[in-house]
Design a protein that fits this description.
This protein is of the alpha/beta class and about 220 residues long. It contains five helices and eight strands, in the order βββαβαβαββαβα. Strands 1-2-4-3-5-6-7-8 form an eight-stranded mixed sheet, with helices on both faces. Helix 4 links the parallel strand 7 and strand 8. It is globular, with a radius of gyration of 16 Å. The mean pLDDT is about 95.
């Protein structure tokens, strides 16, 4: 549990969180120069679909976590229920959403003055968006949002800045479907589309990280 972290040094550390169906396996990334009192935000990173080999070891999710750490934020990537050592079984977004809320509650207890940032890739982007309003997220990041598989139009507006990143050659989520969703309320999102880029950002992970650093360095400095 987060309350059992104690004093962690910079780097990656395996921890156990409490989910609605039992233990959630997670890895926390602690940035260099970490100090509880100076932790501005904690970024939660949600992985792609559990039934299609999605896990916290996914390269896009790992890139998100490492990039947030470079920004000086604590970041957490975790396995949804039924993946790896996380207990329970896949619950078609319902239990997964509950688990992210519970994770955020534990984060707030451990870092009461820190903002909550939510990020997700593909399936994980829907889970993050689905609970952002409930956990009062300060920032939402959606990578290749699965708008054809989950109804993002039913998501409660999170009331925070929302960055969306998409590859123009995505073979899992149709780029035009994401464009249509964005165009329904274009003022709501900061939208970036990567050229010559598929769903898993092969060969483009460094560029993805660079984009996130460029976008969020000023935001972090302003907190």
């Amino acid at each position: 549990m987060l309350s059992d972290w104690g004093q962690l040094e910079s780097g990656e550390h395996r921890i156990s969180l409490v989910g609605g169906a039992g233990v959630i396996e997670a890895i926390v990334h602690i940035p260099k120069g970490f100090h509880d009192a100076r932790t501005k935000a904690v970024a939660i990173c949600c992985h792609p679909h559990p039934l299609y080999e999605g896990s916290m070891t996914n390269k896009v999710v790992h890139t998100l976590a490492k990039t947030f750490s470079k920004l000086g934020l604590v970041s957490i990537r975790f396995n949804f229920r039924g993946v790896g050592r996380s207990e329970g079984k896949h619950d078609n977004t319902i239990g997964e959403s509950t688990d992210v809320v519970l994770i955020c509650q534990q984060v707030i207890k451990r870092f009461p003055k820190a903002q909550i940032w939510l990020s997700g890739f593909s399936f994980g982007s829907f889970i993050a968006a689905n609970v952002a309003h409930e956990v009062n997220a300060a920032q939402l990041i959606s990578i290749s949002p699965a708008v054809e598989h989950y109804d993002f139009t039913e998501v409660v507006d999170p009331g925070c800045p929302w960055l969306v990143v998409m590859g123009d050659e995505d073979d899992i989520v149709t780029p035009s479907a994401v464009d249509h969703w964005i165009n329904m309320s274009p003022e709501r999102y900061d939208y970036f589309q990567f050229p010559d880029t598929g769903h898993f950002y092969h060969g483009k992970l460094v560029k993805l990280s660079d984009l996130l650093l460029q976008q969020f360095q000023p935001v972090v400095e302003a907190i």
